[in-house]
Design brief:
CATH superfamily of one domain: RRM (RNA recognition motif) domain
Protein name: LARP7 protein
Shape: flat
Largest sheet: 4 strands, antiparallel
Pfam family, one: RRM_3
Distance between the termini: 57 Å
Keywords: RNA-binding
CATH architecture of one domain: 2-Layer Sandwich
CATH topology of one domain: Alpha-Beta Plaits
Radius of gyration: 21 Å
Order of helices and strands: EHEEHHEHH
Organism: Sula dactylatra (Masked booby)
Structural class: alpha+beta
Number of strands: 4
CATH class of one domain: Alpha Beta
Number of helices: 5
Helix content: 40-55%
GO molecular function, one term: RNA binding
């Protein structure tokens, strides 16, 4: 079904320097409100954050001064034409993702690939170095 149009839930974040990763932004804002999705590319100076409710977006906007000072971000709730265009972008991106062809594996191929992944994870875990730091 996908996300349903709700007015006032998308906040645009603008920064003077490249933003940190999706997870860092989501964690920073999740303290204040329920974040549904963070839409950004790595190294971008702006991103869009979709919240669960308009109230969540307003909560972030009210307390954004402290976040703005801490991270040097500027917040803006999308409205009107900008909001409509962004929701269109969401739907187009979703369709593009759903229409991507995916590799279909069956039977023994699937089992071999899974076993190979498990073996690779196990060898990576055993080859990790344990480093002890000396506190002076």
């Amino acid at each position: 079904m996908g996300p349903q149009f709700v007015s006032g839930v998308i906040v645009k974040i603008i920064s003077t320097e490249p933003l940190p990763g999706r997870k860092q932004i989501k964690d920073a804002l999740a303290v204040l409100a329920d974040v549904a999705y963070v839409d950004m590319l790595e190294g971008d100076t702006e991103c869009h954050v979709r919240f669960q409710t308009p109230e969540d977006a307003q909560t972030v906007m009210k307390s954004y001064k402290e976040i703005q000072i801490k991270n040097n971000w500027k917040f803006e709730v999308l409205t009107g034409d900008h909001e409509q265009r962004y929701w269109q972008k969401i739907l187009v991106d979703r369709q593009a993702k759903l229409n991507q062809p995916r590799e279909k594996k069956r039977g023994t191929e699937k089992l071999i690939a899974k076993a190979e992944r498990m073996r690779l994870e196990k060898t990576q875990q055993t080859s990790k170095h344990i480093r002890f730091t000396e506190d002076n």
